[in-house]
Design a protein that fits this description.
Rossmann fold; Transcription Termination Factor Rho, Rna-binding Domain, Chain A, Domain 1; binds the ligand CSCCC(=O)C(=O)COP(=O)(O)O; binds magnesium ion; cytoplasm; nucleus; HAD-like_sf
């Protein structure tokens, strides 16, 4: 059977979510519209809560860093106690979130708010995490073979846990040994992969990273992480060079672990 041999030194598999474990359509057609449709009401309802205050404060700091970008939406601090001031500030946050999402930004500030907003949808059972059919059986097999399995996504750790904890396959959080998000660094920066290896307590050479994005694969490779690019229905196409330069898999079942015959 055709497959990709996992190098013997690999002891941990690191998984991207969107486009790797989970269809891009689930994120773009279900998770993201939920944010766009509910952000205004969410802010109105939770504005006085500490968690929401921290989310807004992080978004405001991000907006200051983004001030030089085309179309950037600033978030003013409310000057007075007036209802109009408050409504203007909330409206600015809503527009900032929608602007960031129109560009599919992966800022920690945006991802943190999204994670908090999805909590209600997942815990009430309105949304369930979706995975490609090969994902859960393969992860179970890897775990049974003694492999450690981690998740590294731009989605916040809280959002990752909601997705795996409330999924069409039930609560499968126990399958994962740990989670990483952009707080450790961005996925296109090789330093992030060195920090992940440090945090796991292994060498970068002991990790195999599976992702749909070649910029992420390239950053990981630069840090000596093994990579395979995952080709899934609905993912962006790869160039001929990308197809030549990376090991490609279209299902997790194609991975052959060192001990397997
Ligand atoms: C519940 S995870 C949310 C997915 C998300 O917001 C995202 O940006 C996914 O990015 P990835 O790094 O997994 O491709
Ligand atoms: Mg991805």
């Amino acid at each position: 059977m055709v497959g990709l041999s996992v190098p013997a030194e690999v002891t941990a598999i690191l998984l991207d979510i969107e486009g790797t474990t989970t269809p891009i359509a689930f994120v773009k057609d279900i998770l993201f519209p939920y944010i766009k449709e509910n952000v205004q009401e969410y802010l109105q309802t939770h504005w006085e809560e500490e968690e929401c205050r921290q989310d807004v404060s992080l978004l405001r700091k991000q907006a200051e860093e983004d001030a030089h970008l085309d179309g950037a939406v600033p978030i003013p601090t409310a000057f007075g106690d007036g209802v109009d001031d408050l409504q203007q500030t909330i409206q600015a946050v809503v527009e900032n979130v929608r602007w960031q999402m129109s560009l599919d930004r992966k800022t920690t500030a945006l991802k943190q708010l999204q994670g908090h907003m999805w909590r209600a949808a997942f815990t009430a059972g309105h949304v369930k995490g979706e995975f490609f059919a090969d994902v859960v059986p393969a992860v179970r097999k890897w775990k049974a073979a003694g492999m450690k399995v981690y998740v590294y996504s731009s989605g916040s750790i809280e959002a990752q846990k909601l997705l795996f904890g409330h999924s069409t396959e039930g609560d499968i959080l126990e399958l994962f040994d740990g989670h990483f998000d952009t707080k450790i660094g961005h996925k296109v920066e090789s330093e992030s992969y060195r920090k992940i290896a440090d945090s796991i307590g292994c060498s970068t050479k002991n990790i195999l990273f599976l992702t749909d994005i070649t910029l992420e694969a390239s950053a990981a490779e630069e840090a000596d992480v093994h990579v395979a690019v995952v080709v899934r229905p609905g993912n962006a196409g790869l160039t001929d060079d990308e197809k030549t330069n990376y090991q490609l898999i279209s299902s997790f079942s194609e991975l052959r672990l060192p001990s397997a015959t």
